[in-house]
Amino acid sequence: MTVPALADLLTPADAEALAAAVLPAAVERFVGGAAGAELTLRANRAAFDRLHLVPRVLADVSSVGTTRTLLGTESALPVAVAPMAYQRAVHPDGEPAAARAARDAGVPFTACTFSSTAVEDITATGATTWFQLYWLRDRGHTGELLERAEAAGCRALMLTVDTPRMGRRAADMRGAFTLPDGVSPVHFGARPDGVPRTASSGVSAVAAQTANVVDPSLSWADLDWLRARTRLPLILKGVLDPDDAERAAACGADALVVSNHGGRQLDGALPALDALPAVAEAVAGRCEVLLDSGVRSGTDVLKALALGADGVLLGRPVLWGLAAGGHQGVLRVLHLLGEELESALALAGCPDLAAAARLRTVAGPGGEPR
């Protein structure tokens, strides 16, 4: 197989081949893999593939706008970089390189609780940064992370709500996955639970460490504690059920992320794109709605907007770009996504993102228009 050079990439998804050429096999499996039989991983893509757009014509698209305000900050695209752990496992420059690319592309970057670079070093890049939080067994440590995120200048807090425990990821278990030397969750410092232990056969060290520190008792009642301790806008990530979306909006969430964790949690869960219309209807504009899981192209972004999303989170393609070329690799992926979105908007007869929200869609051959 001929692997293209970074400059030869024509789509964000093309970066996957470059990443595969440079990543150790275990790390590639960790990035690309999912839970169980990976049914939901494949279903996420199938949902995008079977959804068809109904373009409008005779619209003046001589100028097409892609900017959107997300959580109070203007973004050049209706896109933010998703929270992804241990980015130094795919490239030594890790999270700061990806954050600089997000800054240069004009989109938000989400720093992760299990980041391999400190949140202070990420915000120092000048990127608009959101902080993703896992609910930790050590409530004091949770509070410390909140304080650090605010002090570092993060603009929003994203609480992941679909991970009371890590999904069973067979590839990582079979390979007894451990992080590469020198890569660790720096927000845990010298704590005894902070560095993933060496895995035994059939055990992922990352899964074992996550089980040790993430609190599965997280419930709706804990949102009051969280709200009382942060002034940041609150995003809940991992919502698929419209009843949960309704309750989150009633609790004052500023945004929801419709997500199945890229297929990495409950295998067999509903594709995020299929869950999106009901969630958007349930919240009825009371909070922003973002889509995560399976986004690979600008046309995917347009489909999400047509089904009611305010924007999307981009995950694996960012890691592929980072592995392939560090800062420049991620920037190339984000620029390609923007070019694809601008082209898709024009071809669909949408001069702006508001027009995209009015597009009709048809789900599959013979499907009913939405």
Describe this structure in words.
Its cofactor is FMN. This is Alpha-hydroxy-acid oxidizing protein. Residues 4-366 form the FMN hydroxy acid dehydrogenase domain. Belongs to the FMN-dependent alpha-hydroxy acid dehydrogenase family. Keywords: Oxidoreductase. This protein is of the alpha/beta class. It has one domain: Alpha-Beta Barrel (TIM Barrel). Helix content is 39%, strand content 13%. It has helices at 15-22, 25-32, 39-50, 94-105, 119-123, 139-152, 170-174, 205-213, 222-228, 242-250, 272-283, 298-306, 316-347, 353-356, and strands at residues 51-54, 68-70, 73-75, 79-81, 109-111, 129-133, 156-160, 234-239, 255-258, 288-291, 311-314, 360-363. The strands form three sheets. The chain has an eight-stranded parallel beta sheet with strand order 4-11-10-9-8-7-6-5. Helix 1 runs antiparallel to helix 13. It is globular and about 60 Å long.
3D shape: globular
Distance N terminus to C terminus? 41 Å
Total E-strand runs = 12
Provide the CATH superfamily: Aldolase class I
| Main sheet specs | 8 strands, parallel
Structural class: alpha/beta
Give the amount of beta strand, in percent. 5-15%
> Largest sheet, order of strands side by side?
4-11-10-9-8-7-6-5
Rg over C-alpha atoms, rounded to the nearest angstrom: 19 Å
| Average pLDDT | 94
Structurally, how many domains make up the residues?
A: 1
CATH top level assignment: Alpha Beta
Count the helices. How many?
14
Low-confidence stretches: none
Share in helix? 25-40%
Q: What is the CATH architecture term?
A: Alpha-Beta Barrel
CATH topology description: TIM Barrel
Query: How are helices and strands ordered from N to C?
Result: HHHEEEEHEHEHEHHHEHEHEHEHHE
